[in-house]
Design goal:
31% helix, alpha+beta, single chain, 166 residues, 7-stranded mixed sheet, 7 strands, Nuclear Transport Factor 2, Chain: A
């Protein structure tokens, strides 16, 4: 990590934690609802095999950091990435948000879930953990600016009906 990126990461961490700064009050109910709606809309996009709907959740300059892959930068490249995943191994996603924090026009969500993948020997259900960072847009909507996840080494055969968020 370069010194500059380290400073940016530290600044973001402090801003989002509210440590030592004047973060005022709780976020507006509408902001919190919009932020909390992103994960279910992501699941719906995967279920609908709709890469355009997935890409619409991201800021134009967003960065996706998939496990074992180079960063994917920009909404158009992100849509292409998700289209490839939907045409390939990605079968389902279940997301369970654990924590959401908001500081002004920035927010983050951490969570866990499972990713259903197709494999030559049958489907796999892979436990995952994720962090997303969101930014409030000029129109008042919230978009993902950063999306990173990791996969557990412990994958289990997929069971019917377990890959979707209800």
């Amino acid at each position: 990590m370069t010194l500059k990126s380290g400073r940016i990461a530290l600044t973001l961490a402090l801003a989002l934690s509210g440590a030592g700064c004047g973060v005022s009050g709780a976020p507006a109910d509408a902001d919190f609802a919009a932020i909390r709606s992103i994960s279910p809309r992501f699941v719906k996009g995967v279920e609908g095999r709709d890469a355009a709907a997935l890409a619409a959740l991201y800021d134009e300059a967003a960065v996706v950091l998939p496990p074992g892959s180079n960063p994917i930068r920009g909404r158009a490249a992100i849509q292409k990435y998700w289209q490839g995943m939907l045409n390939g191994p990605l079968q389902s996603v279940r997301l369970e948000p654990r924590e959401v924090r908001v500081a002004g026009d920035l927010a983050y969500e951490t969570g866990e879930g499972t990713i259903g993948l197709s494999a030559p020997s049958g489907g796999l259900s892979v436990p995952a953990a994720y962090v997303t960072i969101m930014k409030k847009q000029a129109d008042g909507s919230w978009k993902l600016t950063h999306d990173i996840w990791n996969l557990s080494a412990e994958a289990a055969p997929a069971q019917a009906g377990t890959g979707h968020q209800d």
